Amino acid sequence: MLESERHQIILEALKEKNSVKIQELVDLTNASESTIRRDLTQLEQGKFLKRVHGGAARLQGKLQEPSMTEKSSKNLQAKRQIAQYAGNLVEAGDCIYLDAGSTVFEMIPYLPTNIVVVTNGLMHANELLEKNIKTFLVGGFVKPTTKAMIGRGALESLEHYRFDKCFMGVNGIHPQFGYTTPDQEEAMIKQQAISLTREAYVLADETKFSEIAFAKIADLHLATIITNEIDLDIEEQFINKTKIRVVTS
After folding, report:
1. Which residues contact 236 (CB under 8 A, 6 or more apart)?
2. What are the tens digits of pLDDT across the range 55-69?
3. Which end of the chain, N or C, is surrounded by fewer C-beta atoms within 10 Å?
4. Pairwise pLDDT comparison (69 vs 17), residue with the higher score
5. What secondary structure does DSSP assign to the chain, as a single string?
């Protein structure tokens, strides 16, 4: 089978469902696993798909953004695994920033109580208060889908704070284009928080790797990535660009 034919079969398989395993593609094309891996690398470089652990997945649209409810129900086990690790990085006496992301929200049960939290996540506030954590909510416009505080008011509020650590959610992590999110205003808030912190962390499961959303947040080296699983081929693309901490169960 010609390379172009294999590529067409791979892309057709991804049209039918959002992700495919390498073994499925081996069966479909009668090619070797090493050949399929090479095909996937070529198609990823051409921005036709993204590599994920054990296979490939369709790329999301640049402006595609699930609601907070939709995000909260996806990959929940992975998010909690990442969140627990991130929560354990917070020490008594820290002043931290929590982004409005769904994985960041899952950190709250694992936080120590004798800290100060600043957040733009409207959904985070009640959970933080239930834990008796001193909480500051930035001002601004409440974005209906993600329940994030954004806009000029939020940016101006952030200017008054400095953080030991900040924890971010993103929609895309790409070796060339860095951290991205669909909304330009949310990107500005995330960018501002990163600039005001001593240590920045991006919390992301494997689905965020190789994705590129509309608005750039920051270059890779400005934050450490915490993830639960990453394919070795993908991890190699990030060597010398940033630190990645892979959480094991």
Report:
1. none
2. 888 887 766 666 555
3. C
4. 17
5. --HHHHHHHHHHHHHHSSEEEHHHHHHHHT--HHHHHHHHHHHHHTTS-EEETTEEEPPPPTT----HHHHHHSSHHHHHHHHHHHHTT--TT-EEEE-S-HHHHTTGGGS-SSSEEEE-BHHHHHHHHHTT-EEEE--SEEPTTT-BEESHHHHHHHTT--EEEEEEE-SEEETTTEEEES-HHHHHHHHHHHHTEEEEEEE--GGGBT---SEEEE-GGGSEEEES---HHHHHHTTTT--EEE---
Instruction: Assign 2 a pLDDT band (cuts: 50, 70, 90).
Output: confident
Whether residue 96 contacts residue 90, with contact meaning beta carbons closer than 8 Å, is answered with yes
What are the structure tokens assigned to 126, written together?
């009640």
Length, in residues, of the chain = 249
100 neighbors 149 (Cβ within 8 angstroms): yes
pLDDT bin (cut points 50, 70, 90) of residue 1 is confident
For residues 65-94, average pLDDT = 82
pLDDT exceeds 90 at position 50: no
Q: What Cα–Cα distance (Å) separates residue 37 from each residue in 40, 176, 234?
A: 5, 21, 12
